[in-house]
Design goal:
By secondary structure, the protein is α/β, with parallel strands linked by helices. The chain has twelve helices and 22 strands. The chain has three domains: about 210 residues, 3-Layer(bba) Sandwich (FAD/NAD(P)-binding domain); about 110 residues, FAD/NAD(P)-binding domain (3-Layer(bba) Sandwich); about 110 residues, 2-Layer Sandwich (Enolase-like, domain 1), CATH 3.30.390.30.
Length: about 450
Amino acid sequence: MYDLIVIGSGPAGEGAAVAASKNGLNVAVIESKPKVGGNCTFNGTIPSKALRHIVSRSIEVNSNHLFNADERPLTLSPSDSLIHVESTIAKQVAHRSSAFHRNKIKVFTGHATFEDKNTLNVTFEDGKSKNLSSKNIVIATGSSPYRPENINFGQENIFDSNTILSLKNKPSTMIVYGAGVIGCEYASIFRGLGVKVTLINTREHLLEFLDREISDALSYHFTSEGISLKSNETLKSVENQEGQVHIELNSGKVLRADCLLFANGRSGNTGNLGLHKINIKPDQRGLLDIDENYETSVKGIYAIGDVIGYPSLASTSFAQGRVAGEYIATGKSNSLPKQFPTGIYTLPEISFIGKTEKELTESKVPYEVGKAQFKHLARAQIGEHEVGFLKILFHRETKEILGIHSFGDSSAEIIHIGQVAMDSKELNVEYFASTTFNYPTMAEAYRIAALNGLNKLF
């Protein structure tokens, strides 16, 4: 009998297992894949960002006049880039395996299904099975790409985000259906590889949860880089004709390309867990309802990470796991910070924390905007990463920082400077105007943006 069994070894599962073990519980993890790490490590965050890194470096080489023009353009295929991707995955697996081993967490490789609320049946690769019992069980099985029934994903030129990296030869043209985070990231990555990309957005604006100025900047940059952006479009049919994908949209448009990446939605991996045996019913997207402690409607059964929906970030999933694991072990109820940073790894990247201008306007909050254009930063000029800007939203009277939004190189890194300031009760926008930053750095954007905003108050 274990104190806790966690189903899934991704960021959420690891966070819960390690936190519970550090608090003295006897913990086991069940992972359906041969190695630990979950979808984040093998199909999601790690491989896509490793591929992005290689593509961004090739773009730098091809655009930098210092390199020998006779050796350009440097061309890469997805399979060429996979060497780096596979190396990164291997390092992540080793690190996460070590974390489970150090914390004396037993890992079972197999598929888990509920027998009752305290018993899981684990089916191993050889077909044998074993029952494991626990006082508490955490469901951290992640999510999978949504696959409509009218699309044949068995075709060799139709992919989702879990299979796109199996693409062996670089296509000349690609259609990406779905302009969410995953669709936008892959659209920019494959455009960076030299593929002609058409990005179909079912909404009016790209990533509508972003500050509007950031969304507009992304749209402008995509278009200027040669991505064909089609907005307010929905899919009618997909056919394979003579080795090409033919897509008909409900607007009547017909598009053709060498391949299709369907990236329109994800579903929680809860369909084959036997949840009906313990009277838990996921919603239509396979997501589970939980309370403030991540406990489901069944006492002792918890759910964390992608299976509970928003925000579905690796960082917040790990934090949810930590909070749930500590609660199971100690009974102490904690919660995540109200504000957390979000990183979107398009080329160039986006990151933000806090409120948008639209939200502040609707709430009738008197705010001011301070902005720094990256093209004015010495570090951006040196590195030839001059696209983008950082903006600080702050209260006109109290100077409290209300939101930070960044578009451009290093955005996902420098956002944490703003995060620390926003979490502090003592610091406001004047701190950035008066403190000293290393020079030259991208972080210097905070000083320039703060001065820009404060100058508007006088």
